[in-house]
């Protein structure tokens, strides 16, 4: 999970840098503008690419946030399971103690021996 978040951080940083690079390239191409035939079409495509990169940058940022929330949720689930394990241990101890109490309560009937209707003949 940590490696995935690290990778998302790297992607986020690189898309951010790529977005800035695309802005600079687009501005450079736009500034050349009408001096060279065909440049406006290139500039238009560069502008579209820049928008795509910005969209990807936003998507990676949302993925990073989602992974952070997921990591928190997994931590909460882990904590809940740990607490449940402790409660099961306490329950087991209580049932064992109850078993001992029932055994102690039944001891007087053992003294009756054959008179006890529940005792084997």
Question: How would you briefly describe this protein structure?
Answer:
By secondary structure, the protein is mostly helical. It has two helices and no strands.
Question: What does this entry look like structurally?
Answer:
With 121 residues, the protein is mostly helical. The chain has one domain. Helix content is 87%, strand content 0%. It contains two helices and no strands. α1 runs antiparallel to α2. The chain starts with a helix and ends in a 9-residue tail after the last helix.
Describe the structure using short key phrases.
single chain; 121 residues; mainly alpha; 2 helices; rod-shaped
Distance between the termini: 66 Å
Low-confidence segments, given as residue ranges, are none
What is the total tally of β strands?
0
Structural class: mainly alpha
* Estimated radius of gyration: 36 Å
Number of domains: 1
Beta-strand portion reads under 5%
Helix and strand sequence:
HH
Largest sheet: none
Helix content range of the residues, please?
over 70%
Helix count from the secondary structure assignment: 2
Mean pLDDT over the full residue set: 80
Overall 3D geometry?
rod-shaped
Per-chain topology:
Layout: H1 2-32, H2 39-112
